Amino acid sequence: MTGTPQRQPEDGPRPESLADLLGGRRGAVDATLPPLAFGLGWVLGGLGGGVLAAVLTGTAVAGWRWRRGDRPRSVLVGLLAVCVAALVALRTGRAADFFLLQIAANAASALAWAVSIVVRWPLLGVVAGTALGQRTRWRRDPALLRAYGRASWVWTASYVLRVAVFVPLWLYGQVVALTVARAALTWPVIAAALAGSWVVIRRSLPAGHPGLRHPVDPADADGVAARTE
């Protein structure tokens, strides 16, 4: 009797590990700092000041992430993104172009998530399956596959929202507004997408389904019956 209540808390928090893989609070804050530094530097010192502030902040963030044990590839990719954004702005001479890489990344992400749903390989399932050590076993569960597909639309919408906000501001060269939007649409949107996609998954799974950590294989009818009772 005491064993059952003790297992329930273990099952509950596990899906929250998706926050780290999909861009948790710490990663979102780190990614927001260089653009904020760029906006402030641009206001105080023009394009050169903005680029210098962004690169220095990006380097500091990369060093901090390295010291706290983040994977080298993740650290280098983050710093490289800042450097490329800075080079684009310097090349064009237009401060708003610092955000062009971010716009392109969000547009590409929206397309990738949408396509993944259409081809029945929803990216939320891929990420969750990796996080839970399931590889592709989740795809053999029709209910879980359907739930991941529906929930992946939440993430697709989050990228579409960013593009819809960023593009007009970029076209009109609104650097300060882009800086504010970049911060406002990072962690808050990620948090909303995490919460929204989790609600969609829970509502999509049928009653009695054992949950994300236990994909149901239709071929194993006896095992399914044993789990759901």
Automatic annotation (TrEMBL):
Superkingdom per UniProt: Bacteria
Protein name according to UniProt: DUF3159 domain-containing protein
Keywords: Membrane, Transmembrane, Transmembrane helix
Keyword tRNA-binding attached: no
Lineage of origin: Bacteria, Bacillati, Actinomycetota, Actinomycetes, Micromonosporales
Alphabetized InterPro entries for the sequence: UCP010219
Residue spans crossing the bilayer: 40-62, 74-90, 110-132, 153-172, 184-201
UniProt source species: Micromonospora tulbaghiae
A Pfam cross-reference name: DUF3159
